[in-house]
Amino acid sequence: MSLFKKSLLLIILLLIIDQVVKIWIKTHMTIGQEFNVFGDWAKIHFLENPGMAFGLKWGGDTGKLMLSTFRLAAIAILTWYLYTIAEKKYPKIIVFGVALILAGAIGNILDSAFYGLIFSESTYGTVAKLFPENGGYAGFLHGSVVDMLYFPMINGTFPSWIPFYGGKSFTFFSPVFNIADSCVTIGVALIIIFRKKFAKT
Questions:
Q1: If residue 147 lies in a helix (H) or strand (E), which one and from where to where?
Q2: Catalytic site residue from 18, 61, 111, 181
Q3: Is 147 in the active site?
């Protein structure tokens, strides 16, 4: 099997895992609901993100549409790039790193493109329904991304001598994200760590 086909299989596997988890969360939990996985530092905490990765937002509906359009363009470019480096026999770790980034990009654009069409709205007291009779909660490319991975490993208070933040509480690590976000982060990290192999090809 060619390296490109192996990369596609990896992408499909990750997308299946990502979407199965998101659909289960969406149809079984309400916004803000959570449960512990490992003690108090690793949780499943359901949030929906209308913007970028790790809960960031930008530009309202227009920004959402621009972000989704950018993601679609990025997916097309990454797919072409993945095929190119796989066919040129780049190191496997680099090819798989790009595949992880592509899987993450596709995973989140699926939410944005289709979840608004096929789900009813999730609220703080209502579990969403799949294929509701009255239609979905948003149009094409305007759906929200489902986030659920939460690792509040350290909770504390900033020392009083720190300017502006002294005495305020903090949580590390506070972002809520998903498997697709993790794929992108790991893929970028692999490319950075093994960049010397990348440069030699």
A1: strand 145-150
A2: 181
A3: yes
- DSSP β-bridge partners for residue 42: 38
Reading the chain (201 residues) residue by residue, the pLDDT tens digits are 899 999 999 999 999 999 999 999 999 999 999 999 988 889 999 999 886 554 455 555 676 777 778 889 999 999 999 999 999 989 999 999 999 999 999 999 999 999 999 999 999 999 999 999 999 999 998 899 999 999 988 887 888 888 888 788 877 778 999 999 999 999 999 999 988 766 655
Token pair for 121: 């709205």
* pTM of the predicted protein model: 0.87
Give the side-chain half-sphere CA count within 13 A for 142: 11
Active site residue 18: no
Domain parsing of the chain, residue ranges: 3-200
